[in-house]
What we know:
The complex is a heterodimer of chains A (about 170) and B (about 210). Chain A has helices at about 10-15, 25-35, 35-60, 65-85, 85-110, 115-125, 130-135, 145-170. Chain A has about 170 residues and is an all-alpha fold. Chain A has two domains: about 10-60, no CATH class; about 65-170. Chain A is rod-shaped, with a radius of gyration of 41 Å. The relative contact order of chain A is 0.06. By secondary structure, chain B is mainly α. Chain B has two domains: about 1-30, no CATH class; about 40-205, Up-down Bundle (Butyryl-CoA Dehydrogenase, subunit A, domain 3). Chain B contains ten helices and no strands. Chain B has helices spanning about 1-15, 25-30, 40-60, 65-80, 90-110, 135-145, 150-160, 165-175, 175-200, 200-205. Chains A and B meet through helix 3, helix 4 and helix 5 of A and helix 2, helix 3, helix 4, helix 6 and helix 7 of B.
Amino acid sequence: MRLSCPRENEVRGLVELGQWPAAADPELSAHVSTCRACGDLVLVSQAFQKARTQTLAAAKLPPPGILFWRAQLRRRNAAVERLTRPLLGAEIFALVAALVAASGFTGFEARHGIAWLTWLDHLGQTGGLHWNALLSTVTPDQSWTWMILLPAFAGLALLGGLAVYLASERQ
Amino acid sequence: MATSVIATMSWEFALPGAFAGGAVDAAGERACESPMDDEAFAAFYSRSARPLWAYLARCSSDPALAEDLMQESYVRFLCAAGAPSLFAEGEAAARLYLFRIATNLLRDHWRRPRAASIEEIPEEFFAVQSRAEQTDSQILLGPALRRMKPRERQLLWLAHAEGYSHREIAQVTGLAAASIRLLLFRARHKIAALLRNQNPPDRREA
């Protein structure tokens, strides 16, 4: 069977214009009645065009403003998501830095004796938190420990603040 | 001066909104610029929404699904960075792009495991309650379409209801342009046989 007929375009044009069979010459009508491909084309095209006309009338459409607003909202959310994506890297970096600092501090304390345990014992004996009790645990030969502790505490405070900010920003 | 500007930019990058006075909001507003304004969209929508809904409804046999997919198609069209501009590429290109989005959504819907097979969905919407209300096309095309495969429905609707060329159908469906001719021929031959079988010669003549 032939995939197409040479007169198919001619027939298709008349059907699409809605002029079949009124505007068709008798010779073309006779051809369609004998050509299976053209006969199929006329039958199917007419059925689909009728169905299209009836289906178009049945459509219940939402107002375009709603769709435009939804699209704007989605584009805005996508843009904000793109902009805030690099912050994930900053969060991971902050977490790694905090873990390194904490593990370094713990390792240092483990190697040099856990001085703050002594301070804790002393705190238990005095029954309250006194700044002097904290200072008394630091012997003169260990004063350089503050050179490590202070930046570590400052770093942790900064990272904590950053984490709180990021959490609130995301919300 | 330059150092402070660089420092400010880096802080804005790290902490958007904190120092920039709502940099995210501004960027969000810029990103909301659609390929067309709301008036142009409303005009385009009024011309293209009904044909798109008809295509989706007839291919899916589910008007509610067609409405959902139609809305999603327009939202994606407005959000797509590569969507053709109405002014540069013209409305025909924009409409083809829209139909392609809808076709992909329809295909995704059919691929979902929880979705029922298209062959199992009755064409309830088009089967009017009273037989007296049924028109010829509803009586004839509905049952015949139900017996066609989803891809055949799409090809037939695009070719014979929308009047798209083989090249345009290839753009919408993502199939090779060379194969459209053969697929369409087979689908047309199949549905024509179905229509002839359910439409006896005496009724056709009447």
